[in-house]
Amino acid sequence: MSEDDQMHEHISKDRIFFIDQQKVVLHDFDAPGYILDIGGGGEGVIGKLKCMRVIAIDTRKEELEGTPEGPLKLVMDARNLQFLDNTFDTTTSFFTLMYVEKANREKILREVYRVLKPNGEFLIWDVVIPPRDDNPKEFFAVRLVVVVHGEEIETGYGVPWKDREQDVSYYADLAEKIGFDVLSKEEHDQTYFLKLKKWGKLSIKGLTKNYIKIDE
Ligand SMILES: C[S@@+](CC[C@H](N)C(=O)[O-])C[C@H]1O[C@@H](n2cnc3c(N)ncnc32)[C@H](O)[C@@H]1O
User: Fold this and answer.
1) How close is the Cα of 203 to the center of ligand 1, in Å?
2) Average of pLDDT values for 89-103?
3) E strands within the chain?
C-alpha cells in the first residue's frame, strides 16, 4: 500500500499534524468553454461552482462517485492527460497539488500547459506545507471551510508529510520554468491562490520563438 493509499485508511490523530482551520471563499470566475478540474473528487468544489461546464478528472473512481452530479467525471491521471493539445481555456486545481509527490509536480504542470489553449489559464488553490524536519508526526492535514455560492462546506485534506513541502513561490517558479506567466500570486493565512497563463505563440515567419502577450 502506498503512503497516499494509507491516507484513505483510518489514521489515528496522534500521527497527524493539523494546522488551524483555514477559510477559502471561492469567488466565481469568468471562464469560456469547458473547465478541466484536476483531482476533482473529494467535495467536488469546482464542480459545485461551475457545474456542467466542468470536466472533473481524478485517479480515484470512488472520489468522483461521491461528488454531486453536473460535471463530466473521468477517471484519469493528471500526469498523463488524455486530451489533445490546446483543448481548454481554463484548468483548475483545488487542493490537489498537495497530494502530488515532488517527483510528479513538474510532469503535471507540463501536462496542464500542453492541454491549455494559448492564452489559457491555470487556477490553483492550495495549502502551504512547511518542511517536516524532525517533527514526529507522519501526516500533514488542513481543516477547511470552503464558501461556494454562499454555502459553507466543512472538509479536511491530509497527506503524508515527508517531502511534501510547498508554497506559492515554489509553484510560481516551477510554472515559469515550464513557460507559464504568473498573473496572480496570493497567500491567505496558510492557503494560497496562484493564477497562471499560457501565452499565445507568435507564428510570424522567422519569429516563431517570440511570444505575444495580449492584454485582457
Ligand atoms: C484533496 S483532494 C482534492 C479535493 C477536491 N478538488 C475537492 O474539491 O474537494 C485531492 C484529489 O486529487 C486526486 N489526485 C491525486 N493525484 C492525482 C493525479 N495524479 N491525477 C488526478 N488526480 C489526482 C486524489 O485522488 C484526490 O481525490
Assistant:
1) 36
2) 97
3) 16-26, 35-38, 54-58, 72-75, 88-94, 116-127, 139-148, 151-160, 181-188, 191-197, 200-201, 211-212
